[in-house]
Amino acid sequence: MDVQPFSVNDGDGIRTTIFLAGCPLRCPWCSNPEGFSQKEIIGWFRRKCIGCGACAEVCPEGIGIDLNAERDRCVTCGKCAEACPAGARAYMVRLTDAGEILEKVNRHRLFYAQSGGGVTFSGGEPVSQPEFLRYLAQNIYDMGYSMDLETTGQFDFEKVADILALMDLIFVDLKHPDKAKYLEYTGGGNERVLHNLRRMAELPAKVVVRIPVIHSVNAEEDTVRGLAALVQETLPDAAIELLPYHDFGRIKYDAIGLPYDHPEFSRPSAETMKRLKAIISEAGLEVADFR
User: Fold this and answer.
1) 136, 126 in Cβ contact below 8 A?
2) Whether 56 contacts 43, CB under 8 Å
3) How high is the pLDDT of residue 231?
4) CATH assignment of 46-91, given 3.30.70, 2.60.120, 3.30.910, 3.30.60?
5) 3-state SS string over 116-168?
6) Closest CA to 210 of 168, 142, 141, 153
7) What pLDDT is attached to residue 129?
8) Neighbouring-strand partners of residue 90
9) Omega of the bond prior to 249 within 30 degrees of 0, cis?
10) pLDDT in the model for residue 291
11) Which pLDDT score is estimated for 69?
């Protein structure tokens, strides 16, 4: 999906975040919807479009300026992205050689060394591409850079244990303590997440459980107490980071022709976040903050 340098929210220090496409969940608040699948995707950013028609002139399928109106005919050849003078057409997911990614990572080695940073794998769900992730992780490990991983926790632990063992920090998403609601909101259960949290006690990595806090989903105090209790039961050494909801990804939904209509979701106030963090502390768990 992207290789983002100078990231400061995905672990310690200055980091390069590698976003890998593909995810088993369908969280309706996801800020990276282009990563739901591993299919190549061209986005159309209508705010940038100047209506010049350069994209339509080079399209082999005869698609007009409004890509989303004819997206089912797009073959993601990329000619429109090359021709667009305003950057309104761009790859949001593309096939990339591992060597290209490793080269980009290595360009910023001085920033890692001076800041205590490194590389973070994110997504989508990076573990959904285990062979590619393994190759990258082994090579970056040999380079001597710190590595972190952001995951939904939806994976077979045994199949990726060797990859996880190379990480210094693992962020694990946990959305809701109730199994039925977890399934309703994400399309997946929380049983596997909790199982994998237990197994992470075997790893040298520090674990941070990340909870997206969303009004109408899980911002109630009792719900957060339930989440804290689950973490205390499964991996009491883990820290918890509460992430207030945002809709910054809305523009991406528009760019790939997906609706984003969730007026029921809203951002908790600073006072609410303070109160919920206090609940985590009262449960005897560390509160983390990488923002």
Assistant:
1) no
2) no
3) 97
4) 3.30.70
5) CCEEEEEECCHHHCHHHHHHHHHHHHHHCCEEEEEECCCCCHHHHHHHHCCCC
6) 153
7) 96
8) 43
9) no
10) 80
11) 95
83-118: per-residue pLDDT in tens? 999 999 999 999 999 999 999 999 999 999 999 999
Domain 2-37+95-287 identical in fold to domain 46-91: no
Confirm if 34 and 41 have CB atoms less than 8 A apart: yes
| pLDDT digit string, tens, across residues 5-53 | 999 999 999 999 999 999 999 999 999 999 999 999 999 999 999 999 9
Question: In which residue ranges of the chain is pLDDT below 50?
Answer: none
- From the number of C-beta atoms within 10 Å of its C-beta (0-12, 13-18, 19+), residue 286 rates as middle
How many CB atoms lie under 10 A from the CB of residue 57? 10
Each domain of the chain, given as residue ranges in start order, spans 2-37+95-287, 46-91
pTM value surpassing 0.85: yes
Amino acid at 53: G
Q: Could you tell me the fold of the domain covering 2-37+95-287?
A: TIM Barrel (3.20.20)
CB contact set of 195 (below 8 Å; sequence gap of 6+): 157
Identify any residues that bridge with 123 across adjacent strands, giving them in sequence order.
20
Q: Are 78 and 107 in contact (CB under 8 A)?
A: no
H or E stretch including 210? strand 206-213
